[in-house]
Design a protein that fits this description.
- It is a single chain.
- By secondary structure, the chain is mainly α.
- About 70% of the residues lie in helices and about 0% in strands.
- The chain has one domain.
- It is globular.
Length: about 300
Protein backbone atom coordinates (compact mmCIF):
# COMPACT_ATOMS: atom_id res chain seq x y z
CA UNK A 1 0.00 0.00 0.00
CA UNK A 2 1.37 3.39 -0.94
CA UNK A 3 2.10 5.99 1.69
CA UNK A 4 -0.19 9.01 1.70
CA UNK A 5 1.46 12.34 1.01
CA UNK A 6 0.32 13.62 4.42
CA UNK A 7 2.44 10.89 6.07
CA UNK A 8 5.65 12.35 4.63
CA UNK A 9 7.58 14.75 6.88
CA UNK A 10 7.68 18.42 5.83
CA UNK A 11 10.68 19.49 3.80
CA UNK A 12 12.23 21.54 6.58
CA UNK A 13 12.02 18.55 8.93
CA UNK A 14 13.73 16.40 6.31
CA UNK A 15 16.42 19.09 6.18
CA UNK A 16 16.90 18.94 9.93
CA UNK A 17 16.29 15.30 10.76
CA UNK A 18 16.85 13.39 7.51
CA UNK A 19 14.62 11.55 5.09
CA UNK A 20 13.53 7.91 4.91
CA UNK A 21 14.83 7.01 1.46
CA UNK A 22 18.27 5.89 0.28
CA UNK A 23 20.66 8.68 1.20
CA UNK A 24 22.90 9.08 -1.83
CA UNK A 25 22.94 11.26 -4.91
CA UNK A 26 21.63 9.17 -7.77
CA UNK A 27 23.39 9.33 -11.16
CA UNK A 28 20.25 10.89 -12.63
CA UNK A 29 20.32 13.71 -10.06
CA UNK A 30 24.04 14.30 -10.61
CA UNK A 31 23.52 14.48 -14.37
CA UNK A 32 20.63 16.91 -13.82
CA UNK A 33 22.85 19.29 -11.81
CA UNK A 34 25.61 19.02 -14.42
CA UNK A 35 23.17 19.67 -17.28
CA UNK A 36 21.85 22.79 -15.55
CA UNK A 37 25.43 23.99 -15.22
CA UNK A 38 26.16 23.32 -18.91
CA UNK A 39 23.00 25.18 -19.94
CA UNK A 40 24.14 28.17 -17.88
CA UNK A 41 27.59 28.04 -19.47
CA UNK A 42 26.18 28.00 -23.00
CA UNK A 43 23.69 30.76 -22.14
CA UNK A 44 26.42 32.90 -20.62
CA UNK A 45 28.63 32.42 -23.67
CA UNK A 46 25.84 33.32 -26.09
CA UNK A 47 24.86 36.43 -24.11
CA UNK A 48 28.47 37.56 -23.94
CA UNK A 49 28.74 37.13 -27.70
CA UNK A 50 25.92 39.61 -28.17
CA UNK A 51 27.50 42.10 -25.72
CA UNK A 52 24.84 41.47 -23.09
CA UNK A 53 25.88 41.56 -19.43
CA UNK A 54 26.29 37.91 -18.42
CA UNK A 55 28.38 35.80 -16.05
CA UNK A 56 31.66 34.54 -17.44
CA UNK A 57 31.42 31.00 -18.76
CA UNK A 58 34.69 30.18 -16.97
CA UNK A 59 33.09 31.15 -13.66
CA UNK A 60 30.03 29.04 -14.39
CA UNK A 61 32.18 26.06 -15.36
CA UNK A 62 34.18 26.37 -12.15
CA UNK A 63 30.93 26.54 -10.14
CA UNK A 64 29.78 23.08 -11.26
CA UNK A 65 32.17 21.01 -9.04
CA UNK A 66 31.13 22.97 -5.94
CA UNK A 67 27.45 22.53 -6.79
CA UNK A 68 27.91 18.77 -7.24
CA UNK A 69 29.70 18.51 -3.89
CA UNK A 70 26.88 20.45 -2.23
CA UNK A 71 24.38 18.09 -3.84
CA UNK A 72 26.27 15.03 -2.58
CA UNK A 73 26.49 16.38 0.97
CA UNK A 74 22.78 17.23 1.04
CA UNK A 75 21.86 13.84 -0.41
CA UNK A 76 23.79 12.00 2.30
CA UNK A 77 21.24 12.97 4.95
CA UNK A 78 18.25 14.14 2.96
CA UNK A 79 17.98 12.00 -0.17
CA UNK A 80 18.76 12.32 -3.84
CA UNK A 81 15.91 14.67 -4.76
CA UNK A 82 16.89 17.06 -2.01
CA UNK A 83 20.54 16.89 -3.09
CA UNK A 84 19.63 17.76 -6.66
CA UNK A 85 17.57 20.74 -5.45
CA UNK A 86 20.46 21.99 -3.32
CA UNK A 87 22.97 21.67 -6.18
CA UNK A 88 20.73 23.51 -8.63
CA UNK A 89 19.99 26.19 -6.02
CA UNK A 90 23.71 26.85 -5.61
CA UNK A 91 24.22 27.11 -9.37
CA UNK A 92 21.43 29.65 -9.68
CA UNK A 93 22.35 32.03 -6.86
CA UNK A 94 23.19 35.63 -7.67
CA UNK A 95 26.67 35.01 -6.27
CA UNK A 96 27.29 32.72 -9.26
CA UNK A 97 25.12 34.35 -11.93
CA UNK A 98 26.00 38.02 -11.39
CA UNK A 99 27.42 39.63 -14.56
CA UNK A 100 31.19 39.36 -14.55
CA UNK A 101 31.16 37.23 -11.41
CA UNK A 102 34.11 36.97 -9.06
CA UNK A 103 36.18 34.79 -11.37
CA UNK A 104 36.69 31.02 -11.56
CA UNK A 105 39.29 30.81 -8.79
CA UNK A 106 36.87 31.62 -5.93
CA UNK A 107 34.44 29.04 -7.32
CA UNK A 108 37.17 26.39 -7.36
CA UNK A 109 38.08 27.47 -3.82
CA UNK A 110 34.45 26.88 -2.86
CA UNK A 111 34.72 23.35 -4.26
CA UNK A 112 37.91 22.68 -2.27
CA UNK A 113 36.32 24.20 0.84
CA UNK A 114 33.24 22.01 0.35
CA UNK A 115 35.43 18.92 -0.09
CA UNK A 116 37.20 19.64 3.20
CA UNK A 117 33.93 20.30 5.02
CA UNK A 118 32.50 17.16 3.45
CA UNK A 119 35.43 15.04 4.65
CA UNK A 120 34.93 16.40 8.16
CA UNK A 121 31.20 15.68 8.03
CA UNK A 122 31.63 12.12 6.74
CA UNK A 123 33.79 11.28 9.74
CA UNK A 124 32.02 13.27 12.47
CA UNK A 125 28.38 14.03 11.61
CA UNK A 126 26.16 11.04 12.42
CA UNK A 127 23.02 10.38 10.45
CA UNK A 128 21.07 7.57 8.86
CA UNK A 129 24.29 6.39 7.22
CA UNK A 130 27.30 5.39 9.35
CA UNK A 131 30.30 7.68 9.63
CA UNK A 132 33.41 6.93 7.57
CA UNK A 133 36.86 5.97 8.85
CA UNK A 134 38.36 9.07 10.46
CA UNK A 135 41.96 8.45 9.39
CA UNK A 136 41.10 8.27 5.71
CA UNK A 137 38.82 11.31 5.94
CA UNK A 138 41.47 13.17 7.93
CA UNK A 139 43.92 12.86 5.06
CA UNK A 140 41.26 14.00 2.61
CA UNK A 141 40.33 16.92 4.90
CA UNK A 142 43.86 18.30 5.09
CA UNK A 143 44.53 17.72 1.40
CA UNK A 144 41.42 19.79 0.57
CA UNK A 145 42.43 22.38 3.19
CA UNK A 146 45.81 22.82 1.48
CA UNK A 147 44.07 23.26 -1.87
CA UNK A 148 41.73 25.83 -0.28
CA UNK A 149 44.76 27.63 1.11
CA UNK A 150 46.38 27.97 -2.31
CA UNK A 151 43.15 29.02 -4.00
CA UNK A 152 41.72 31.44 -1.40
CA UNK A 153 44.42 32.19 1.15
CA UNK A 154 44.78 31.72 4.93
CA UNK A 155 41.48 33.49 5.67
CA UNK A 156 39.53 30.74 3.89
CA UNK A 157 41.31 28.07 5.96
CA UNK A 158 40.42 30.07 9.08
CA UNK A 159 36.77 29.98 7.95
CA UNK A 160 37.03 26.20 7.50
CA UNK A 161 38.48 25.53 10.95
CA UNK A 162 36.03 27.98 12.55
CA UNK A 163 33.09 25.96 11.23
CA UNK A 164 34.60 22.62 12.24
CA UNK A 165 35.57 23.84 15.72
CA UNK A 166 32.11 25.33 16.22
CA UNK A 167 30.57 21.95 15.43
CA UNK A 168 33.02 20.23 17.80
CA UNK A 169 32.13 22.62 20.64
CA UNK A 170 28.37 22.39 20.13
CA UNK A 171 28.46 18.60 19.77
CA UNK A 172 30.72 18.17 22.84
CA UNK A 173 32.40 15.30 21.02
CA UNK A 174 36.15 14.84 21.60
CA UNK A 175 36.40 12.73 18.45
CA UNK A 176 35.93 15.89 16.36
CA UNK A 177 38.88 17.53 18.10
CA UNK A 178 41.00 14.42 17.63
CA UNK A 179 40.07 14.46 13.95
CA UNK A 180 41.35 18.02 13.58
CA UNK A 181 44.45 17.37 15.73
CA UNK A 182 46.15 15.41 12.96
CA UNK A 183 49.92 15.95 13.43
CA UNK A 184 50.74 15.35 9.77
CA UNK A 185 47.97 17.64 8.55
CA UNK A 186 48.80 20.42 11.01
CA UNK A 187 52.50 20.08 10.20
CA UNK A 188 51.65 20.61 6.54
CA UNK A 189 49.05 23.38 6.81
CA UNK A 190 50.64 25.62 9.45
CA UNK A 191 53.97 26.20 7.61
CA UNK A 192 52.06 26.89 4.39
CA UNK A 193 49.89 29.45 6.17
CA UNK A 194 52.96 31.17 7.61
CA UNK A 195 54.57 31.13 4.17
CA UNK A 196 51.51 32.72 2.56
CA UNK A 197 51.31 35.38 5.27
CA UNK A 198 54.98 36.29 4.91
CA UNK A 199 55.03 36.07 1.11
CA UNK A 200 51.44 36.70 -0.02
CA UNK A 201 50.51 35.71 -3.56
CA UNK A 202 49.28 38.22 -6.12
CA UNK A 203 45.48 38.65 -6.18
CA UNK A 204 43.60 36.42 -8.60
CA UNK A 205 41.99 38.03 -11.67
CA UNK A 206 38.53 39.17 -10.76
CA UNK A 207 39.30 39.13 -7.02
CA UNK A 208 39.81 42.00 -4.65
CA UNK A 209 43.34 43.36 -4.42
CA UNK A 210 42.93 43.80 -0.65
CA UNK A 211 40.52 41.82 1.50
CA UNK A 212 38.37 44.59 2.94
CA UNK A 213 37.56 44.35 6.64
CA UNK A 214 33.78 44.48 6.65
CA UNK A 215 31.41 44.68 9.58
CA UNK A 216 29.11 41.76 10.34
CA UNK A 217 25.98 43.58 9.06
CA UNK A 218 27.75 44.29 5.76
CA UNK A 219 28.74 40.64 5.38
CA UNK A 220 25.21 39.47 6.23
CA UNK A 221 23.82 41.88 3.64
CA UNK A 222 26.31 40.64 1.07
CA UNK A 223 25.34 37.04 1.81
CA UNK A 224 21.66 37.87 1.50
CA UNK A 225 22.28 39.38 -1.94
CA UNK A 226 24.65 36.60 -3.06
CA UNK A 227 22.10 33.95 -2.02
CA UNK A 228 19.22 35.46 -4.00
CA UNK A 229 16.70 34.28 -5.11
CA UNK A 230 16.94 31.58 -2.41
CA UNK A 231 17.54 33.88 0.56
CA UNK A 232 13.86 34.13 1.50
CA UNK A 233 13.17 30.34 1.46
CA UNK A 234 16.48 29.89 3.31
CA UNK A 235 15.39 32.19 6.14
CA UNK A 236 11.92 30.63 6.20
CA UNK A 237 13.32 27.08 6.49
CA UNK A 238 15.72 28.10 9.27
CA UNK A 239 12.96 29.83 11.29
CA UNK A 240 10.56 26.91 10.77
CA UNK A 241 13.21 24.43 11.88
CA UNK A 242 14.09 26.42 14.98
CA UNK A 243 10.41 26.72 15.93
CA UNK A 244 10.05 22.94 15.66
CA UNK A 245 13.03 22.36 17.95
CA UNK A 246 15.16 20.43 15.47
CA UNK A 247 18.23 22.64 15.93
CA UNK A 248 19.89 19.89 18.00
CA UNK A 249 20.09 17.38 15.13
CA UNK A 250 23.58 16.74 13.72
CA UNK A 251 22.85 17.78 10.14
CA UNK A 252 21.39 21.10 11.30
CA UNK A 253 24.43 21.71 13.48
CA UNK A 254 26.80 20.92 10.65
CA UNK A 255 25.34 23.31 8.08
CA UNK A 256 24.65 25.98 10.72
CA UNK A 257 28.27 25.85 11.97
CA UNK A 258 29.53 26.02 8.37
CA UNK A 259 27.77 29.38 8.16
CA UNK A 260 27.98 30.72 11.73
CA UNK A 261 31.62 29.81 12.46
CA UNK A 262 33.05 32.10 9.75
CA UNK A 263 30.57 34.84 10.69
CA UNK A 264 31.95 34.78 14.24
CA UNK A 265 35.42 35.40 12.81
CA UNK A 266 34.05 38.27 10.73
CA UNK A 267 32.47 39.75 13.85
CA UNK A 268 35.89 39.51 15.52
CA UNK A 269 37.45 41.53 12.69
CA UNK A 270 38.70 38.86 10.27
CA UNK A 271 39.00 40.30 6.72
CA UNK A 272 36.28 39.19 4.33
CA UNK A 273 35.90 40.02 0.65
CA UNK A 274 33.41 39.00 -2.02
CA UNK A 275 35.48 35.95 -2.96
CA UNK A 276 35.28 34.56 0.57
CA UNK A 277 31.52 35.06 0.67
CA UNK A 278 31.33 32.43 -2.08
CA UNK A 279 32.61 29.86 0.44
CA UNK A 280 29.39 30.29 2.42
CA UNK A 281 27.03 29.64 -0.49
CA UNK A 282 26.66 25.84 0.06
CA UNK A 283 24.83 26.03 3.44
CA UNK A 284 22.65 28.82 2.04
CA UNK A 285 21.83 26.65 -0.99
CA UNK A 286 20.92 23.62 1.16
CA UNK A 287 18.69 25.70 3.44
CA UNK A 288 17.14 27.43 0.43
CA UNK A 289 16.38 24.03 -1.09
CA UNK A 290 14.62 23.10 2.17
CA UNK A 291 12.42 26.16 1.93
CA UNK A 292 11.79 25.61 -1.77
CA UNK A 293 10.70 21.99 -1.31
CA UNK A 294 8.55 22.93 1.67
CA UNK A 295 6.83 25.65 -0.38
CA UNK A 296 6.28 23.20 -3.25
CA UNK A 297 4.73 20.66 -0.87
CA UNK A 298 2.48 23.36 0.61
CA UNK A 299 1.33 24.44 -2.86
CA UNK A 300 0.58 20.82 -3.83
CA UNK A 301 -1.48 20.28 -0.69
CA UNK A 302 -3.44 23.49 -1.20
CA UNK A 303 -3.98 22.76 -4.89
CA UNK A 304 -5.14 19.23 -4.08
CA UNK A 305 -7.64 20.50 -1.53
CA UNK A 306 -8.93 23.12 -3.97
CA UNK A 307 -9.35 20.53 -6.75
CA UNK A 308 -11.13 18.12 -4.41
CA UNK A 309 -13.41 20.90 -3.17
CA UNK A 310 -14.29 21.93 -6.75
CA UNK A 311 -14.85 18.37 -7.92
CA UNK A 312 -16.98 17.57 -4.89
Amino acid sequence: MSVAPSDSPPAFRRFLAGGPEALRLSPRAAVLVAVVGLVLIVSGGLLSTYAVAAPKWQTLAAAIPAALLTAVLAARWLGSRFGAAAGMAQLTTLGVLQPGGCGPQPMLACAAFSAAAGAFSLANVPGRMPTVDGRRMGRAFYAAAVLTLFLAGPGAVAFLFAGCLAFSIISVDPRCVRFLANPLGIGLVVPLIVWQIVWPAAPAPGGDAVAAVRSLPEVLGGLAVAGMPWTVPCVWAAIAGLRQGHYATPVWRFFACWLVGPLVLVAAGTPCDSARLVLLLPPLAVTGAAGLLAAAAWIRRRAGRWIRAKSG
